[in-house]
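Summary for the steering committee. The consortium agreed at its last meeting that each partner would contribute one worked example illustrating the joint modelling workflow. Our contribution is presented below. We chose a case with several input lines so that the handling of multiple components could be demonstrated. No manual editing was applied between input and output; the record is shown as generated.
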Amino acid sequence: DGGITQSPKYLFRKEGQNVTLSCEQNLNHDAMYWYRQDPGQGLRLIYYSQIVNDFQKGDIAEGYSVSREKKESFPLTVTSAQKNPTAFYLCASSIRPDTEAFFGQGTRLTVV
Amino acid sequence: AQSVTQLGSHVSVSEGALVLLRCNYSSSVPPYLFWYVQYPNQGLQLLLKYTSAATLVKGINGFEAEFKKSETSFHLTKPSAHMSDAAEYFCAVSDLSGTSYGKLTFGQGTILTVHP
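What follows is the complete predicted structure of the assembly.
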């Protein structure tokens, strides 16, 4: 079945540690996105990529980094510079940048 | 920069009543618009989309939305609410201009409660 896989579903890390969230898609989509979701704040865009080896900062990129070395993969690293990393992270992809996005099931990150 | 505003963070309706969730956008060019639904601890599912064809768009589960350029609105409606419609709904706009081409921006979300 085609889709977007985020792993793990739940992730716990100690404060000060970097952590990488995985996002893989087998839909052959060009565009991929990372969002952060906090209660009452909707989805805020962290990074997006329109094509392999290229990505742009979203609205809240500080403290995060990404790579897009393969079309199907768009991992997100939450660095120790991110002040409040505990959140629900959603990855999405779309055939082209201007079409509807399909979402993974999310990763809930808790930093203690 | 484009933006999306959803009026009302919480909407409560009775089962069988009309559902109306409001969305207004700002964009320098006519955008593409989307409505998504999210159930607890899950990803988002597309309900419907507007991509400059018909202004009245029909989606899944009996939902529809009307694009009104003069009002910069894209409100979501359903004639008769069902208990299973209880969820959080998000309006989103896709930027079709310049260096932000393809940037997908979401509203704050509206939690829909359906009571018997």
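The mean pLDDT of chain A is 93. Chain A touches chain B through 31 residues (CB under 8 Å).
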